[in-house]
Amino acid sequence: MPGYLCQAARALLGLSQSDLRELSMVSKKSINDYENAFSDLSEGLALRLRQALEGQGARFVHGDGATGVVTGMARSELDRRSRSPRKNEAPSDRP
């Protein structure tokens, strides 16, 4: 799993780097450096990140010239997990 897919999966799941650190037991600096292509991770650390993300609902796909990440969560679950204050407001609270 390349670092950009780790970042994409984390964003889709509404997880911060700190959240992923807690789930995977990989340091936040290592996650940041990996996602921003500053460094590579050992196979063991990359596997821990992948397992943590998959445990939260991410599915990594590869084939037919495409590589990506998807989630099987309903939109309401994704909105609930969002860190965006606007998404966490009730619809009646929005302007």
From TrEMBL:
Write out the biased-composition intervals (Basic and acidic residues).
Answer: 76-95
One Pfam family in the UniProt entry? HTH_3
Q: Which residues, by range, are in coiled-coil regions?
A: none
Q: Which molecular function GO terms apply here?
A: DNA binding
Domain HTH cro/C1-type: start-end pairs: 8-53
Q: Which parts of the sequence are annotated with region: Disordered?
A: 71-95
Entries under InterPro entries matching the protein: Cro/C1-type_HTH (IPR001387), Lambda_DNA-bd_dom_sf (IPR010982)
Its name, as the record gives it, is HTH cro/C1-type domain-containing protein
